[in-house]
Design a protein that fits this description.
Order of helices and strands: HEEHEEEEHE
Radius of gyration: 14 Å
Number of strands: 7
Largest sheet: 5 strands, mixed
Strand order of the largest sheet: 1-2-6-5-4
Strand content: 15-25%
Distance between the termini: 14 Å
Helix content: 25-40%
């Protein structure tokens, strides 16, 4: 069974919050017509962590570019969360490592996005 969701900023905010908790820095939600809402992080998204933490609807597509940028976007609304190509600093790496250590020790049930 496929699960399609009209993803907007409020639907994707848990992913943004989790990326921040893993040490990714960014800005804020932006809307620049004619584009749809987007959130831009400095570092690439931890797509493995996002997949481990969340049950994503079928309408969310993942993009990975050769330069290191990553994005997650809704094919229905074009709302996106993107990560930049910058290398992570040590502080961000430690936050991400701590998140993965916790996940390995005590895996939590996946949270449903748009459910």
């Amino acid at each position: 069974m496929t699960r399609q969701v009209q993803c907007g900023p409020e639907t994707l905010q848990p992913i943004v919050d989790s990326e921040v908790a893993r040490g990714n820095s960014g800005g804020r939600w932006q809307v620049q017509p004619p584009s749809e809402p987007s959130y831009h992080f400095t570092y690439p998204l931890d797509l493995d962590a996002i997949r481990a933490e969340f049950d994503l609807p079928d309408c969310l597509q993942v993009w990975e570019w050769p330069d290191g940028r990553t994005s997650l976007g809704c094919t229905l609304t074009r709302c996106t969360v993107g990560g930049g190509p910058a290398s992570q600093g040590r502080r961000a790496e430690r936050a991400r490592e701590r998140w993965w250590e916790q996940q390995r020790r005590n895996p939590r049930p996946r949270r449903v996005i748009g459910g």
